[in-house]
Write a structure and sequence with these properties.
The complex is a heterodimer of chains A (462) and B (424). Chain A has 462 residues and is mainly alpha-helical. Chain A contains 21 helices and four strands. In chain A, strand 1 and strand 2 form a beta hairpin. Chain B is mainly beta. Chain B contains four helices and 31 strands. In chain B, the strands form eight sheets. Chain B has a four-stranded antiparallel sheet, with no helix packed on it. Chain B has a four-stranded antiparallel sheet with strand order 5-6-7-8, with no helix packed on it. In chain B, strands 9-10-11-12 form a four-stranded antiparallel sheet, with no helix packed on it. Chains A and B meet through helix 2, helix 3, helix 4, helix 9 and helix 10 of A and helix 1, helix 3, strand 4 and strand 20 of B.
Chain lengths: 462, 424
């Protein structure tokens, strides 16, 4: 049945239904009482405030969150207000609410049928002569045009339903009217109210949608499982300890955990933090220099760090290693059309016998690389690149960290003072705009050349 | 039956991008542009005069009528027993794999994290609200300069903002609606976006008043279904895309050539993220088949797969060290998967959280996990202890996208309420 499948595709609906069902539990649920409404008495109503209190107790959440969750339940039509059913809102006071009957649950009937809507609007039109509100009137006219051929059926159905309703008790009639109105408020929201049922582009997710998986698919799955079974795994304790170590080490460098000096630009509206930590700044901050010691990758990813490391390698006469690695990165991430030319250039400069900047790769790797060079492709130098990378990582990098050069960098690094909080935080200062990276041609080093700043800003949204 | 054909054709069409001009309207209403090619002639199989469609058999293109095409699609399935036995064999293998994975699981994350200090009071507020989209914001990405962002929306508008000053710097209107993917190039000189047009297009950013940004647009990726996610690799020259046709693909931007395609998902792929590892060769993708799969970019092979979610995976993001990744799903949970232990190691969920998580991202140190949900809220999780640190209200409709800035000073969330908010 369509309803069941819809439930599977929208898991939040079935979860909401479970919540609403447990709310109606006679012992553990929300306190209900009979509510006097004009001259009728409606049983099993719950006050908005009681609903919120129940949610707070059951899920141990704050007032705000409980109200938010309750509001969502009302907006999806699982609870409806008795007095003002036109607006689906949860008031945390003694406004009476009732639980929607499963007949009208979203998961039962979705999407709502045009015919049913036509009948509903016709009923409203007949019952209260011409008091259809704005958008309802529009819909009514639209439907009248669209399904004019079955309009007689619509009117007949509407009349029948109204007649049947007259036979009921006043209280029941009121309740059914509220239920129906809530259903249509959810399925045909008035203009300006976003539809809670909107889902975005359809996904072919359910297994039920795909008729059958092919034999190919299952064979691939099994192959993957077999390979995975032979995989080397690491003990959980080792892996999890690694997270503690990583997060502990990076905590002081995380602006959200430890703040940032001089101040967080988004909070203080001062972009000094970004200026001090610009990609190519003359004197890096202390935290930044410390990060280079965390891992080789950290050092290489920072242009300032990489430049200093290059200088250090120069003193050890092994700068060609880093240059070779950089060239290989360019090959791997460059355009497809440049692959051949790049490979040639790298070969000439780094690998050919007697090359100007010959890199020292072990003979086996060199052999395999030269073999692969006959059919150059973007990954042909991967092995050689990895070899050189490991060489630098295991050998040059630790030496760099122990070197005088690095120690000096640490000593000279700045620790920016914390910015003084402005006395009048509401004073509006024009914010500095920064030049867009797209504005200026990149310099040979890959950094945008510093130039005049971009257009001055206008208003700032609060 | 029709979906089987779609799967087959999509699988085969990927090897030949230039033939993807033949697209079929299967009545799914997935894309705004549908191409219907009606060629009449004699079928290559039954020789009757019918409306033909191209069909691929062992790398050879033939023209079959619809009846013969259907028969071909069900080829190999007439033995229903074979298929059922294959399926059960696959299930038992998966069970064995789970057993193997469980053997090395000697401790839970929250146990190990007991000795870590609890986080203090958490205060994060909206610092900027970016208004300007006329419709639901679907995706956003940060520029490497830590302040610019690109965002895309349902009405086809893609806007580049300097979110620090809240100025709009560029705007482009795509020829399709539901632009679900957008990405900023590492150089900051271009953006990529795509959605229901099944394509990923790259626009170079220009400040020249005389040039129309749409004029220099480059069509890079071609899929057979909607584009759900895209990301540049380490340079402006390559783009990785994920699509509703169940595949991911790596493209060369300059030529639009398909460099590698990744098949293995059983349903739409909704998200992807590149690994921050030093040898930089893998990425993870999540899809509607509830699986998260890790791929080797070079070989196109799936290296690892995880299937513990109970519903569609909307978002995946690597832990900053690259040894793990988090996923957010429609089953209202976020989960952490460790790549070395090859298993799920944490579940971030709460009874009061009923709506699906649409987007997740880590703070710089990996201690905090920010997740945007379809109930309009953002929950902040303590990754190590597994508990919720804070809940952030503010958006008036579902949060569709969330990214932490490159230097970790703030995060930006985009929502169906037409706005983006920067929180710090």
């Amino acid at each position: 049945m369509a309803g069941g499948r819809r439930g599977a595709q929208l898991p939040h609906l079935s979860k909401m239904e479970r919540v609403v069902l447990s709310m109606q539990d006679p012992d553990q649920g929300v306190r209900t009482r009979s509510q006097r409404l004009f001259i009728t008495v409606i049983p099993h109503t719950a006050a908005g405030g009681d609903v919120v209190a129940w949610l707070i107790r059951k899920y141990c959440i704050s007032d705000e969150e409980a109200l938010h969750l309750g509001t969502l339940l009302v907006q999806h039509g699982y609870l409806y207000p008795l007095r003002e059913p036109r607006s689906l809102q949860l008031w945390p006071d003694d406004t009476p609410y009732r639980f929607q009957t499963p007949y009208f649950w979203t998961s039962t009937v979705w999407p709502a049928a045009e015919l049913d809507y036509a009948i509903y609007l016709t009923k409203k039109n007949i019952r209260k002569q011409g008091t259809l509100v704005g958008h309802e009137k529009e819909h009514y006219d639209q439907l009248h045009r669209k399904i004019s051929h079955t309009w007689d059926l619509v009117v007949m159905q509407a009349r029948e339903q109204l007649r049947a309703a007259k036979q009921r008790r006043k209280g029941d009639r009121l309740v059914i009217a509220c239920q129906e109105q809530t259903y249509w408020l959810v399925n045909r929201p008035p203009p300006g109210v976003p539809s809670v049922l909107e889902q975005g582009p359809k996904r072919s997710s359910c297994a039920a949608d795909r008729v059958q998986m092919s034999t190919e698919f299952y064979k691939q799955e099994m192959e993957r499982c077999r390979k995975a079974l032979t995989r080397a795994r690491v003990k959980s304790s080792v892996c999890l300890e690694a997270y503690l170590k990583f997060s502990g080490q990076r905590g002081p460098h995380d602006p959200m955990m430890s703040g940032c000096l001089p101040s967080n630009p988004w909070v203080s509206n001062e972009d000094a933090y970004w200026t001090i930590n610009a990609p190519s700044v003359a004197v890096p901050t202390k935290l930044r220099v410390e990060r280079w010691a965390f891992s080789f990758q950290e050092l290489l990813e920072d242009p300032v760090g990489r430049a200093h490391f290059m200088d250090f390698l120069g003193t050890e006469f092994s700068a060609e290693n880093l240059s070779f690695w950089e060239a290989c990165e360019e090959l791997r991430h460059g355009g497809q059309a440049q692959v051949r030319a790049t490979v040639d250039a790298i070969y000439q400069q780094f690998l050919a016998p007697g090359a100007a900047r010959w890199v020292n790769i072990d003979s086996r790797t060199m052999e395999r690389t030269l073999e692969g060079l006959r059919q150059p492709h973007r990954y042909v130098l991967d092995e050689a690149q990895l070899h050189i990378y490991m060489l630098m990582k295991k050998d040059s990098y630790p030496r760099f960290l122990k070197s005088a050069a690095y120690r000096d960098l640490l000593a000279e690094a700045v620790v920016p003072p914390e910015a003084k909080r402005r006395v009048f935080p509401f004073m509006r200062k024009p914010l500095h705009a920064s030049p867009s990276p797209a504005l200026l041609p990149a310099s040979p080093s890959g950094e945008p050349v510093a130039a005049t700043s971009g257009p001055e800003c206008g208003d700032r949204g609060t | 039956m029709q979906f089987k054909k779609l799967f087959l054709l999509a699988f085969l069409l990927h090897k030949r991008p230039f033939l993807s001009l033949f697209q079929f309207h299967f009545g799914l209403k997935m894309c705004d542009q549908t191409f219907l090619v009606n060629v009449f002639g004699s079928c290559d199989k039954c020789f009757k005069q019918r409306a033909l469609r191209p069909v691929f058999k062992k790398s050879q293109q033939l023209s079959y009528c619809s009846t013969c095409a259907e028969i071909m699609a069900t080829d190999g399935l007439h033995e229903n027993q074979t298929l059922a036995s294959l399926k059960s064999e696959a299930e038992s293998l998966k069970g064995k794999l789970e057993e193997e994975r469980a053997k090395l699981h000697d401790v839970e994350l929250h146990q190990v994290a007991e000795r870590v200090e609890a986080l203090g009071q958490f205060v994060m507020k909206t610092r900027r609200t970016l208004k300007g989209h006329g419709n639901k914001v679907l995706c956003m990405d940060w520029c490497k300069d830590k302040r610019r962002i690109v965002s895309s929306s349902q009405d086809g508008k893609v806007i580049v903002w300097d979110s620090f000053t809240t100025n709009k710097e560029h705007a482009v209107t795509m020829p399709c609606t539901w632009v679900m993917a957008c990405a900023y190039a590492p150089s900051g000189c271009a953006i990529a976006c795509g959605g229901l047009d099944n394509k990923c297009s790259v626009y170079p950013l220009t400040f020249d008043k005389n040039e129309n940004m749409a004029a220099k647009k480059k069509s890079v990726a071609m899929h057979t279904n909607y584009l759900s996610a895209c990301s540049f690799t380490n340079s402006d020259m390559q783009i990785l895309t994920a699509s509703g046709d169940g595949t991911c693909a790596l493209w060369d931007v300059e030529s639009g050539q398909l460099l590698q395609s990744f098949h293995g998902h059983g349903a739409d792929v909704l998200c992807l993220d590149l690994a921050p590892s030093e040898t930089g060769n893998t990425f993870v993708s999540g899809g509607c088949d509830k699986k998260a799969m890790v791929w080797d970019m070079r070989s196109g092979q799936c290296v690892q797969a995880f299937e513990t979610h109970e519903s569609d995976i909307n978002s995946v993001r690597y832990y900053p060290s690259g040894d793990a990744f988090a996923s957010g799903s429609d089953d209202a949970t976020c989960r952490l998967y460790d790549l070395r232990a090859d298993r799920e190691v944490a579940v971030y969920s709460k009874d009061s959280i009923i709506f699906g998580a649409s987007s997740v991202d880590f703070s710089l140190s990996g201690r905090l996990l920010f997740a945007g949900y379809n109930d309009y809220t953002i929950n902040v999780w303590d990754v190590l202890k597994g508990s919720r640190v804070s809940i952030l209200f503010g958006h008036e409709n579902r949060v569709s996208t969330l990214r932490v800035s490159p230097d970790g000073t703030a995060f930006c969330s985009g929502s169906w309420d037409h706005t983006l908010r920067v929180w710090a």
